[in-house]
């Protein structure tokens, strides 16, 4: 059976980009695979965080997993910091990672650019991510396109370790969907949709109310051709909107092009907003019920126990392979 691991960092409110690239995929995989979905809170602290806000956001991400339909009976849902093996394996893997290859990570370059006080944890961030994945001997990792380079490093580290010591790790495959893995800003299709975008209209949050969602899509930039056609080269704005509609309405690209032929952008944008609102409404209701509940804490406690059972077994094998003492 395929093993899946993935997570969404609690460093800002969840937006529909994270839904398209990650959460939406989690739901498809949980029925047929052994799944581990976690909240990478140790990744979030690689940049400064307000401690109270971090805890709140971490619970919110876990609540969104459940609210969107991840079933805690099928998938283990947990906080990364609750399973100590992540930090421990990360240290072991750091001994195998090269300074140069970490320096080539584009996310590190982007996040450290122009800053003088960059934490060393931001630099070793991708090694912790490799540990997250390798601990579960995951075969597949559903992620958005921006995580591709981190997955390549994970595969390199797994192979390097296995060749040098013993075949402890599975070499994982990224699962990057054709549609929805690169949802771009509504204000600028050359930039990934992200909460850090200074223009709030560029990013639709999972918590946005219907009015705000309508307004954000109404303001989305377009070309002036008036033709709903999927063509990233020539029509990036409309292609981005088509992808969002495809994720939220569950329709294929050719079908969308047919459906909106000759309709004009105004009506298209209203229909996208409607599809997003319809999908988010039940998620928002369930989210409000559970985010502050004991039920969520119970899910996280149980998830951490299940995750630790798998993770600890792999960590023990890695330590043994490296010549570190283990009992049992
Ligand atoms: P993060 O928290 O930045 O994003 C979470 C997931 O959402 C995807 N994503 C997007 N997909 C499409 N369009 C967008 N605009 C968009 N924005 C985000 C990301 O590709 C990601 O899949 N390092 C990871 C978290 C992580 C992780 C892991 C993931 C830590 N350890 C182990 C998988 C396995 C990150 O920062 O993702």
From TrEMBL:
EC annotation from Swiss-Prot or TrEMBL: 6.1.1.2
Region forming the signal peptide: none
Pfam families: tRNA-synt_1b (PF00579)
Residues binding L-tryptophan: 132
Top EC group: ligase
Motif extent ('KMSKS' region): 192-196
GO molecular function ontology, one term from the record: tryptophan-tRNA ligase activity
Catalyzed chemical reaction(s): tRNA(Trp) + L-tryptophan + ATP = L-tryptophyl-tRNA(Trp) + AMP + diphosphate + H(+)
Stated role: Catalyzes the attachment of tryptophan to tRNA(Trp).
Similarity annotation: Belongs to the class-I aminoacyl-tRNA synthetase family.
Protein name as it appears in the record: Tryptophan--tRNA ligase
Natural source organism: Paenibacillus artemisiicola
Organism phylogeny: Bacteria, Bacillati, Bacillota, Bacilli, Bacillales
Gene field: trpS
């Amino acid at each position: 059976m395929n093993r899946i691991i993935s997570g969404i960092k609690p460093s800002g409110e969840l937006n529909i980009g994270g839904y398209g690239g990650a959460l939406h995929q989690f739901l498809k995989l949980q029925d047929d695979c052994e799944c581990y979905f976690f909240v990478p809170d140790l990744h979030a602290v690689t940049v400064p965080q307000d401690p109270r806000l971090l805890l709140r956001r971490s619970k919110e991400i876990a609540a969104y997993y459940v609210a969107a339909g991840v079933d805690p009976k099928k998938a283990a849902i947990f906080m990364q910091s609750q399973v100590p093996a992540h930090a421990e394996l990360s240290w072991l893997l750091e001994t195998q990672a090269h300074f140069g290859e970490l320096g080539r990570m584009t996310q590190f370059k982007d996040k450290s650019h122009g800053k003088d006080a960059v934490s060393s944890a931001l630099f070793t961030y991708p090694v912790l991510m490799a540990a997250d994945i390798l601990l579960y001997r995951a075969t597949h990792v559903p992620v958005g396109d921006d995580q591709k380079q981190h997955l390549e490093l994970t595969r390199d580290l797994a192979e390097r370790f296995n060749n040098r010591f013993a075949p402890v790790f599975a070499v994982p495959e990224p699962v990057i969907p054709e549609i929805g893995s690169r949802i771009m800003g509504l204000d600028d299709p050359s930039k990934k949709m992200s909460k850090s975008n200074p223009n709030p209209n560029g990013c639709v949050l999972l918590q946005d109310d219907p009015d705000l969602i309508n307004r954000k899509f109404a303001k989305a930039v377009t070309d002036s051709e008036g033709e709903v056609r999927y063509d990233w080269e020539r029509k990036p704005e409309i292609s981005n909107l088509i992808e969002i509609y495809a994720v939220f309405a569950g329709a294929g690209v050719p079908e969308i092009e047919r459906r909106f032929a000759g309709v004009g952008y105004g009506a298209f944008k209203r229909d996208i907003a409607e599809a997003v609102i319809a999908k988010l409404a039940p998620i928002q209701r369930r989210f409000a019920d559970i985010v502050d509940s004991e039920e969520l804490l119970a899910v996280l406690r149980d998830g951490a126990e299940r995750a630790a059972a798998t993770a600890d077994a792999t960590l023990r094998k890695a330590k043994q392979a490296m010549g570190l003492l283990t009992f049992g």
